[in-house]
Design brief:
Distance between the termini: 132 Å
Oligomer: single chain
Largest sheet: 7 strands, mixed
Length: about 575
């Protein structure tokens, strides 16, 4: 009688270590046997070269996956790059770009028609009065009544009293530079007080700190730099990544490009437009250097759930940045103004930095913002220092070296002018106006609100017609709305000029009338910006859109045909001599 092997008994008699080795080695032995069989008779040098080639290929592919731009995006970009080299495709792109170039140059040229451009520095200097006259002529160009509330965002306070104060303070500090605290000790004190006041507004503790910057973009870039360098120094992560909502400001994408960081965009809820925190959690990796939440986000005005994002930061030991550049000087005062919101600031464990623009609802002149940190240890990584420069030990707190002392002093003056009570009052006026407009839009047939207008932005769309057509109609009536995409919609960012008597009522009236007109023939307004944004959204190769926007940016520096300008200047000089 044949003996049956007692496999089960043999396994039981083996200790855990021996069993583990057997389970691991068995497959490897099998693979080795297969390789020996298949490579039998093959020249050794071929085996070596093949192994080395396969190793290099795997290493190359792995390296591609570790780049700042994902591998899939790199492949897609490469494919589109070659497609654009096809003569017919290339010619079509060049033709469209030339059309856009001419269109933009005509638009900008017409906006300053009759005023000659300067192509070179004048030989003789102009008089004081002549320069002031020319300045007034240039600044009076344009048809939009920005001081009267025609613009979405753009101008946040058009008070003449505040304007005079800002002008006077800037004039006093026009020649100052915070790079030289020995020459301007009072200016250093002003900047330190701006940071201290801002930290108190956002409930920072005794260790909270920050810097004054030139705007929200710089504030965001500096926060990203701080967390990139922190991850490099303390965690040894060379190629870091940031996780940001898809609705977060494009300044984060700019920061990623400038700092060599990877950026992962987290989807948002289809209805609320708030970031999907569960999706954010799934995308956290060993390379994640920072998490981002918006309060509120620019496109739809929704506030992300900062408390949940901060909880992720605490759990995984990752810094959390709150981007409050747009509405920071509103949400900080909303509760006291009678509009309670969820806590978003340094009171939440895990929130390590906040960016807030003083030149928006802080009502300071353009070119000022603050980046704040919960602790000095984060700000230390923001600084730049080069101790070995022959010109001396060089160190700056922000990106710039020399900075405008005039802007800084005016920012300080604006904060003192309003005080806490003043900011509470302006917040009450702006939020009340926003909610009035939102409630009215919700009652207009054909209009749907997009997202949750938590603060001062109300975005809207239509299921019945192209919303960009309404935007064009509003422009014809003197309004300028922000056009958005993915999804298609427009928004109004309510500022203090919109709280002036009658402005909100006129806006509601115009939207109501234009919507009713469009609903009679929804296809009649599919030209203009409706066609442009529709075309831009449908292009799969986004590099083409980038090229087209480059045409627009080039046109900003258009100075007209040189010969025509010189003739106008000659005529003016002759008149002056006579």
């Amino acid at each position: 009688m044949a003996l049956v092997p007692d496999i089960g008994g043999a396994v039981k008699s083996m200790d855990t270590l021996t069993l583990g080795k057997a389970l691991v080695s068995a497959p490897l032995v099998g693979v080795a046997t297969q390789l020996d069989t298949r490579l039998h008779g093959v020249d050794p040098w071929k085996v070596v070269v093949g192994t080395a080639g396969a190793t290099l290929a795997v290493a190359y592919l792995y390296n591609m996956t570790q780049q700042r731009v994902p591998l899939s995006a790199q492949v897609k970009k490469w494919l589109f790059k070659w497609m654009k080299r096809i003569p017919g495709v290339q010619k079509q792109i060049e033709t469209e770009m030339e059309k856009m170039k001419i269109s933009f140059e005509e638009e900008f040229g017409n906006s300053s028609e009759g005023i000659p451009y300067l192509h070179s520095l004048p030989s003789l200097g102009m008089s004081h009065h002549k320069i002031l006259d020319e300045t007034k002529i240039h600044l009076n160009l344009g048809e939009l009544d920005w001081a009267g509330g025609a613009m979405s965002g753009t101008v946040y306070n058009s008070s003449k009293e505040l304007g005079e104060l800002m002008t006077n303070v800037y004039g006093l500090a026009a020649w100052t530079n915070p790079l030289h605290p020995d020459a301007f000790p009072g200016l250093r004190k002003m900047e330190a007080e701006i940071v201290a006041m801002a930290c108190s507004i956002f409930n920072g503790k005794s260790d909270s700190c920050g810097c004054v910057t030139t705007g929200g973009t710089e504030s965001i870039i500096l926060a990203c730099k701080a967390y990139r360098d922190l991850a490099r120094e303390e965690k040894g992560i060379e190629v870091t990544e940031m996780l940001v909502p898809v609705t977060a400001h494009a300044a984060f994408d700019k920061a990623a490009a400038m700092l060599g960081m990877q950026i992962k965009h987290i989807p948002v809820d289809d209805v609320t437009k708030r970031v999907d925190v569960k999706a954010m959690k799934r995308m956290i990796s060993g390379r994640t250097a920072m998490l981002v939440g918006s309060a509120p986000q620019f496109p739809h005005g929704s506030i992300d759930d900062i408390q949940e994002i901060a909880a992720l930061g605490v759990k995984y030991g990752i810094p959390v940045h709150v981007d409050a550049c747009l509405g920071g000087f509103l949400i900080a005062f909303m509760e006291e103004a009678g509009f309670p919101i969820k806590t978003f600031d340094f009171r939440i464990p895990g929130v390590t930095s906040i960016s807030a623009d003083t030149h928006k609802y802080g009502f300071a002149p353009k070119g000022s913002s603050v980046i704040l940190y919960s602790s000095k240890k984060y700000r230390d990584y923001q600084y730049f220092c080069f101790p070995d420069w022959p010109g001396g030990i060089y160190a700056t707190p922000t990106i710039g070296g020399s900075r405008s002392g005039g802007i800084l002093a005016a920012c300080w003056a604006a904060m003192l002018f309003f005080g806490r009570d003043g900011y509470i009052q302006t917040t009450k006026e702006i939020i009340t106006t926003t909610r009035k407009i939102t409630e009215a839009l919700q009652k207009i047939a054909g209009i749907q609100i997009v997202g949750i207008p938590d603060v001062s932005v109300v975005a809207f769309d239509s299921n019945d017609f192209n919303i960009y057509g309404l935007s064009d109609g509003m422009k014809e009536r003197g309004w300028a709305l922000n056009a958005l995409q993915f999804p298609s919609c427009v928004h109004l960012c309510v500022t203090r000029p919109h709280t002036l008597p009658g402005v909100a009522d006129k806006f509601i009236k115009d939207v109501t009338e234009i919507t009713a007109e469009i609903l009679k023939d929804p296809g009649a307004r599919n030209a203009g910006s409706a066609a442009m944004y529709g075309m831009a959204a449908s292009i799969p190769d986004r590099s083409i859109v980038e090229n087209l926007t480059g045409v627009y940016l080039d046109a900003l520096y258009y100075v007209g045909p040189k010969t025509a300008i010189e003739k106008k200047l000659d005529v003016q000089e002759e008149k002056t001599i006579q």
